[in-house]
Specification:
The protein is of the alpha+beta class and 260 residues long. 42% of the residues lie in helices and 23% in strands. The strands form two sheets. Strands 1-8-3-6-9 form a five-stranded antiparallel sheet, covered by helices on one side. A four-stranded antiparallel sheet has the order 2-7-4-5, with no helix packed on it.
Length: 260
Amino acid sequence: MNLFESEALHISKIYTVSRYRTGTEEPERSTSRYNVNLRCYELIYFFKADSAVRFGGQRLEDRTGAIRFLPKGITDGEYVVERFSPNDCIDVYFDTDDTMPQMALCLDDMDELAGLFAKLYQIWSEKKEGYYLQSLSIFYDIIYRIKLHRREYFTSEQERRLMPANEYMAAHFCESDFDYQAMCATTGLSYNHFKNLFIKQLGQSPVRRLTSLRMERAREMLITGQYSVTEIAEACGFDNVYYFSTVFKKYFGVAPSRYK
């Protein structure tokens, strides 16, 4: 799952925005240990960093100009940061009821966000009237730019080649017999080449993208209160309502009957 994948993402709370700097008087190399079971999500921007991170069962690297995302509720493993040089970062502690990745992520080459994180920290620290709404607005802007980042290096020619496939999926994603090969055929590419370009453009495999579209459609239909779970399953391309419920619960963390 990609970071901030939902188009209707709702940030329910920003708890705090803090800045962490290791002093130049500290040892050149240092190690810190933290509780891996976080109570909220964390998004960290590194103005300066060279660190190795162990989080749960993952190994990550912090670099200057990168972002690290940490999920909440992980109970296994450890959270250790080994720094090879002084660090300077801004950490946003937040929460959302929307589905988020259950694994830590690092996004490199995010230098363009340095100014937004600095502004967010300044506004949060000064706490002038309206600071929370201003902070929330900036944080949504950061999220929007993160979502766009994966498209930055996708060339217009590649985007043009995939346009027929995107149109095909948009028109047919609710069909129970959705044909991936037919979608690929609209591009004139081999399936492997098509799949690699698709992932590069959208950050998702074709299968994952299809599921995302179906789940968002199902969620929208549930919210109206006008359809039964069985009707929604059929309308979203699922022949088996039990399988639909399993996929929905895995995607949103709750059964469709309870979400409704």
